[in-house]
Amino acid sequence: NRKTGDRVVARRDGSTIRVSTVTRPLLDENGTVVAIVGCSEEVGALRLAEQQTRDLSEHFRAAVKAGGLGTWRWSTADREMVWDERLEALFGLAPGGFDGRFETYVSLLHPDERDTILSTVREAMATRSVFRVESKVVWPDGSLHWIAGAGGVGSGSPSPSDQGNAANCAAASASASSAARSHSKAARRSSAASSS
Predict the structure, then answer these.
(1) Distance between CA atoms of residues 161 and 180, nearest Å
(2) Residues near 165 by Cβ (< 8 Å), separated by ≥ 6?
(3) What is the reported pLDDT for 92?
(4) 163 pLDDT exceeds 50?
(5) pLDDT digits (tens, 9 = 90+) for 42-51
(6) Burial class (CB in 10 A: 0-12, 13-18, 19+), 72
(7) C-alpha to C-alpha distance for 26 and 49, rounded to whole angstroms
(8) Which of 8, 25, 52, 68 has its Cα between 20 and 30 A from that of 142?
(9) What's the CA gap between 74 and 93, in Å, rounded?
(10) What is the residue-averaged pLDDT of the chain?
């Protein structure tokens, strides 16, 4: 049977390295093991990079959860848009309620905000840059909510129809309703003071 695993080995100079070893037996016509063959590869740097990636992912998940953020990503190559459950909740959808279509996202934006938001996103897509937006969204029950978001755009994996223009977008959003209410109240107080 083939066996694979990591182990630490000592060099002649006394230093140690981590290697990944694969071994398998060689059998004769009677099924008797006559030899063991194997190969080893130094994997210390690879395992360190893997651990750093896991640590970074955990750090990201903790920060997103603590900030109450919803995240999404969008690929123009296949027009796939993926939302996490927190973002679905920010848009008033049940878990799994987003169908992955960009058109659905647009339909959830308040009509007064759509052109501005889409123009900002298109510009970021064209220039491969970051963007920040704040907009009203319409929940399925008809209620209005404010959401603030920020994201970045990078080059994606091209498809034949994209002619090298594919892009990947990743972003995070959070509820801005409290801030929007405070701003609205402050604006009303300022307006009242000016008219008195």
Answers:
(1) 41
(2) 76, 158
(3) 94
(4) no
(5) 999 999 999 9
(6) buried
(7) 34
(8) 68
(9) 18
(10) 83
